[in-house]
Amino acid sequence: MLFKSITMFYTMECFFTLLVIMSTVRPGLSITTTFNVLKYGAVGDGKTNDSPAFLKAWKDVCKSKSGTSQLIIPAAKTFLLRPIAFNGPCNSKNIYIQLSGNIVAPATKSEYSGSHLNTWIGFSFVNGLIISGKGTIDGRGSMWWKQPCLGNPSPGTTCRPPTAVTFNRCNGFQLKGYKSINPARSHITLTNCIKGIITNLKLIAPGESPNTDGIDISGSKEIQVHDSIIATGDDCIAISAGSSLINITGITCGPGHGISIGSLGARGESDIVEDVHVKNCTIIETLNGVRIKTKQGGGGYARRITFEKIKFVRANNPIIIEQFYCIKPMICPNKTQAIKVSDVTFKYIVGTSLTDKAINLNCDQNFGCSNIVFDHVYIQSAVPRMKVFSFCHNAHGTASHTKPKLFCLLK
To answer: To the nearest whole number, what is the mean pLDDT of the chain?
Structure first.
């Protein structure tokens, strides 16, 4: 009897072992393969150029045929990277970067020589990319802010320093949890990406740092940005031409220039932005609040845009539609063609303004703005004894439960 019981026990154990083996080799099972940058020669002392080691590791990550390939950037290390490009397409359906350690940019401009200056860290054609962790990306951008050129440029030269991290044609990506500080230019730029999620990030730079946008979105669709802190020197989030189905929620913005759509129509181009929803955001002491900006002479449209449940705290210029946007107004003539702005809704908005023009709807004289809706919008002065008012130029729509009153809004 004892022999029979022992036999049955081992028979069952072998059966379950066989099931486990079968389950690990059945077709379609996702297997994760990890690659640690330290094993490829990265030092992580913040002084050694670790770019070659990262590129070697990336090569193996990208060619791996596992369901998920994982690049490990370990904690308690600081990795110096010179301008670097992580290119796809890759074999794995998911590329996971565990950002536990810190990444820093070069400390001198000379270390950028010979590199394409558009971006410091670039990802191109990488689908299913996930970057997650508690690490920090430090762009060391202060050396660029006063002089954005390499070397000694001739008078009148216009230079653009590198964006910290760029994603080009990366579909199905996720950015979660990490911190970005002091970029030379924008923290994050998205170009021609589809289905992306950005959540729980901290994007930080001094309020006086020029052109340090938090997130720039262009030519991209189905992008979600939520539950993040953006305190920087330019737009917290800027949505540019070719973008649609953009959802922004739970953002704390400030300092900075607020949340912007545009500028659209530069150089007479035909630009399109549609289906943008900004909700549950707090905007604190920014140069602008929520804004749509277009330039004269362009074509296309900006439509189906909603700003909902926004709170302004001592913001300058809280609500703006500006169809005469120009960096140098004295050399920007009026033109007959313009971006068509329509179906824009502002609702359940409260807060305080540091300027007296709390609502500014400055629309094109030929096309104007149509179906502009204000509903339960209450903005008051943050300055004692200063009154706030609204301004409209060729803006058409409706307003209810709104202060300051919008008597200027045409039907």
So the answer is: 90
